[in-house]
Amino acid sequence: MKTHFIKFALLLFSFFVLGDLKAQNTFLSQHDYVPYYTNPAAVGQENFDRLLIHYRNTTLGSGFGLKNTMAGYSHPLYDSKHKRRFGAVSGSVSDFRSGTAGAFTNTQAMAGFNYNLPIARNHQIGVGMQGSYSFLRIDWTRLTTDAQWIMGNFDPSADLGENLDFTKNDQFNINVGMNWMWFDDAGRINGTFGVAMYDAVNSRNFIQDERTSGTQSYVLSGEVKVAKFDHLALRPMGRAVIQTNSNTYEAGLKLAYEPDMIHQPSVALSSYYRFDQAMVIAMQVYFQNLSLGISYDIPTGSKVGGQLGANNAIEFGASFHFGHMRAQRALGADKAPYVAPATLQHVKPSTIPSRKMKVQEQEQPPSIVDVNQERMEEDLRNEIENTKLRFALGKFDLTEDSDKKLQRIAEIMAKYPNTKILILGHTCTIGDEDINKFVGTERALAARDRLVEAGVPRGNIRIKGMSYTQPIATNDTDDGRAKNRRAQFIIIDQ
């Protein structure tokens, strides 16, 4: 009789446990670090391939717990013609176990795709879809029965005395989402807001083989940078998970250290409150090729329901980043293999086998400037040499104003086809010298390529990256640094 009671109790408990195992998006605390279960459209929003390994251990008391092990991979998709990342494909495999001996299990395989649509400068909308297949099981042979208690002692090798077997249910489902992201000029995320629906297909009841309505989960999530003090950024963040008879709301703050160059190490600390359940504290550390995350759920309320994240839980995550050179080739030197669609350079020039760089390293600026005033009018010469192209921090994108200036230079040079010019690319002092040398060279290359497109012979143009060695203003102020980030033109022969 006791065995049947335990079996019935565990059946009831399985409705909560396996329901939460299926709706995996509801309980991962590091939802910004592991977007697979928060919003399908938020996966793969980096200009590099990412391999993620994640583990969570939840303690429920009375011998019960929940362990989650997950491995995920995302691969960005590039449009080389338009020099942008337009989406990503991803996949993950996860194993969820609960019960006194892991009697409740859910093994899931998931594959997804998302597409990014630029809607304004530094803004994009992403849409994503995932297909998942779950293998849900209850292994009744792992339970303890009266027959295993012999003369007052427990013998786990003894026969159970019951004809116990497996209860299983395999399910396919679909998750969909939409995510809006906007970035600052350095390429860091200024804010994000997402809406997602998980388990869009009504799932089968685990015990009865029939469809059950109302099994969908709706997830709203977002964060926004509201203030920045030197290198510290403050970001309020929140998430809401809406389920039938079981809603979860979270709100908190993230404090992030953001260095000048996006390839440099950074760290983020966050704390948020899961209403009537837990206080979550988390830390993530980011390096160029690796990031690490850890979080802990501190119980603060009595609400459990179907939300197994309400009690003690600790999470660990490790993310490995690679494919930077592929991003470099697909996006061009003006895109960074990091976060935003157009960001700071992430790969040091010494790691990039650039044919253009090798050619330019052999070219030295002339020691003598030969100017024949009679062959080009003084005002036209001055117009060219007084022209300066401006750039955002760490970038080489040509603005609309720069395009107009380059078109004007092309028109003048068309009247004087023997004229040769030198383009110098300059930077401010933010970042190390190697990166700035590379950035300066790429700025000069961008100007040269646009002039060639406008009809100027390539052989009439020489370039050189000057890094921050020739400032025209102070580097102690934002305005001064903006003036130093420039490309300039010198006539060297007519």
Automatic annotation (TrEMBL):
Keywords from the UniProt entry: Membrane, Plasmid, Signal
Domain (OmpA-like): residue spans on this chain: 378-494
Keyword Signal belongs to the record: yes
SUPFAM superfamilies: OmpA-like
Signal among keywords: yes
InterPro entries reported for this sequence: Bact_OuterMem_StrucFunc, OmpA-like, OmpA-like_sf, PorP/SprF_Bacteroidetes
UniProt signal peptide: 1-23
Protein name in UniProt: OmpA-like domain-containing protein
